[in-house]
Design brief:
The complex is a heterodimer.
Chain A: H1 14-38, H2 42-47, H3 50-55, H4 65-73, H5 76-107, H6 113-125, H7 132-139, H8 150-173, H9 178-186, H10 191-202, H11 204-220, H12 223-228, H13 236-245, H14 251-281
Chain B: H1 3-16, H2 27-53, H3 61-89, H4 92-125, H5 139-145, H6 148-180, H7 184-195, H8 202-212, H9 225-232, H10 248-274, H11 278-286, H12 291-302, H13 304-319, H14 323-328, H15 338-348, H16 352-383
Helix pairs in contact in B: 2-3, 3-4, 5-16, 6-10, 6-13, 7-10, 8-10, 10-13, 11-12, 15-16
Chain lengths: 287, 384
Amino acid sequence: MSRKLMKDGRPRSPFSMVTMTILAILWTIPTLGLLVTSFRTRDDAATSGWWTALFHPFSSEWTTANYSGAWTGADLSSGFINSIVVAIPATVIPIMFAAFAAYAFTFMDFPFKEFFFLLIIAVMVVPIQVAFQPMLNILGPRGLGISGQYIAVWLLHTGFGMPLCIYTLRNYMSTLPRSVVESAKIDGCSHFQTFWRLVAPMSIPAIAAFATLQFLWVWNDLLIAKLFLKSENTTVIVKLQQLLGTQGQGQELLTAGAFITIIVPMIVFVTLQRFMIRGMTSGAVKG
Amino acid sequence: MTADTSAAAPRQKMRVDDPNAALRAHPAKMALGLGGMVVVIWFLANLFLAFGYYPEKFGSKFVIAVLAIIGGVGGAALIFYFLNMFVEALPRRLSEGVIPYAFLLPGLLLVGLMLIYPTFQTINYSFANSDSTAYVGLQNYKTIFSDPEFWQSVVNNILWLLIVPAVVVAFGVIVAVLSDKLSAGGEKVAKSMIFLPMAISAVGASAIWLLIYAYNNPGQPQTGLLNAIWVGLGGEPQTWLAIDTLKLNSILLMVILIWLQAGFAMVLLSSAIKGVPEDTVEAARIDGATELQIFWKVIIPQIKGTIITVFVTVFITVLKIFDIVYVTTNGAYGTNVIANLFFNKLFAASEAGQATAIVVVLLIAVTPLIWYQIKHFRDEEAGR
């Protein structure tokens, strides 16, 4: 162990070390259990706990059949593709619209500015459930007739993600030096140019932070996908939820299925964690 | 805020230029901007409707997704480009006044369409029948208020709200403080392990925890961790999620959410604790304060703001808690919550009137939080 903390004169804290080790292990055990179980045969998993396999790795049977079963048999593969198709546009599109709005809120002065921004803060708290029945009517057969298609879900995630995105980006942009924008203006740049050449590139950290949060939120969403996607377009999370509903047959596929749904957000999360923490600690908090 | 300088800059420029230039409109540029906007919006609307109506024409899902990203991002950029062109072609003074609204419009329009309009429409529907075709007065409210399931859900929601945010915050503070005392490497590893569940969906987390709460008949080996421990201690195997004595099953479901949210609380609180000036802690230590006293009297008061932020954020999440209950028990054994009741009324029972009435109750419950968030924002801006 490095002795970094010794430098400022604080002694090592054995109590912290023991407690944190226990907590970290405690927090990992549930996921570990899932991972181990997903590689066990159906019979093994039904007759002994996953920890026995971990303690006797060589006498227990290991298999990847659950994964192939879940991927093809339970058709998680099509759900997986759908999830990607749903999540990427639903992450990217709101940022464009929100970034311009955030620019206006940060660098422009206009009547009712505070009113509009308070409106954004207020709708961050409003439960998205309010939107479901009206949006089912607008997007459904009584309205546009696009409910069930990807476009319906992109639209909804764009709308629902917008307040947080505007809020996050505005908070970040207000930390940028205002003089940069002022001088661009004096040099004859239009707002569009200033936004595109100066403010957008400087806001990349906040954009990355929001994109990570929004991607996790869209990928992990159950409600919107279940209500607004027809079954052949549905996401991997809805597929997993349907697997959870089945008893007996196919139970062994469940753990593998669950792990398949987790793996993509996990990779995104681990790679972009740094950005996300920075964004979160600068006020990007989902309401 | 530097409202004065930003308003002054264009005025200065105007004086240098031909004075009439500021007042003149540029009809050609205006027409081009307006025309461009109309064409882009028309094209995008058709493209996106085509995704909806004729998905098979595009060959594969990925083609649709790629086109959607290009169309969405490129289209948005083009809309703003033409919008900006149009607004700049207006007489200068008018243009300066209009351009902020032009930048806001698309974003606010989406928020208006997806969140503000539906809020009022939902309130409207809550007075209508099950397919929103005729008004029924207060009938929906009478129905849900006389339903014991509704009141049980309210009680459960309150219980969730009392327990989860408090536990998450307390846990977050403890972990943040303890990990701050570890070596840099140890802190990083421990925090990553606790933070990781944040990437997991509520459905995935439920699958993980259902494994822990699994039940096998007595005499058989217990495959669920909780029952294995319980039996190991000499107990009888239990169907944990069916036990509503002392709301045990609800509490076990809360554990899932606490497990998911703890990392989030830890990250925010940890960065707040790192922001506590070292000399305040040092001064207390020199004055002979114990570690516990330093924690309560020096650290906690200085991270109070973050504690409240985390509390409110988790509180709002808990208020809308749905997925975990839906996939584990679907509200059986007395575990129902408001958002799950809403979903079942809307989705399974097709009772739009009652479902929207339930949302209105939820909406009323969050109103104080809206007020709080606005106040919090104003205080923060004042401190900037």
